[in-house]
Amino acid sequence: MCYDNDAAPPRLQPPITGTRAADVRLTSSDGTGFTAYEARPDDVRGSGVVIVPDVRGLHGFYRQLAVRLAEQGHPAIAIDYYGRTAPGDDRGESFPVMELGTPILGLFGGADQGIPADQVTEFDAALTAAGVEHEIVTYPGAPHGFFDAGYAGHAAACADAWNRVLAFLASR
Question: Which residues form the Dienelactone hydrolase domain (predicted)?
């Protein structure tokens, strides 16, 4: 999802554990370095999460999201995927998304003009065809980036999305 610079992820539950968070520098197998932000819970209570930010990289929203997840017991790392500049780094249709081998939770705004309903339907069908365990949820009337505590008009969708994320992680 894309967000305004002052956006913040929801904080619907109080933290259940302390956290430690910091920027880290990672190196890919081909030697290309890229930035990430890691948040570790003091008490791990669930699955780890990899956050792939939008093309703007690791702005505050994604750092805060990693911390919110860690506060609920899930180790989280946001990687600046689009900041990686290795030659031949193909992010087009041939990008091996279906080879992830992990369950996927997709949360979409029904009024998102950047990700039309037919693309969500195609994504859902491709995941099904590839045998990838997944859940796709579309929130009618919600815009792109609705998962933002500042969108009072979409607070119910934001809260439902957050609860689905936590339930999804708890089931792993």
Answer: 34-98, 99-170
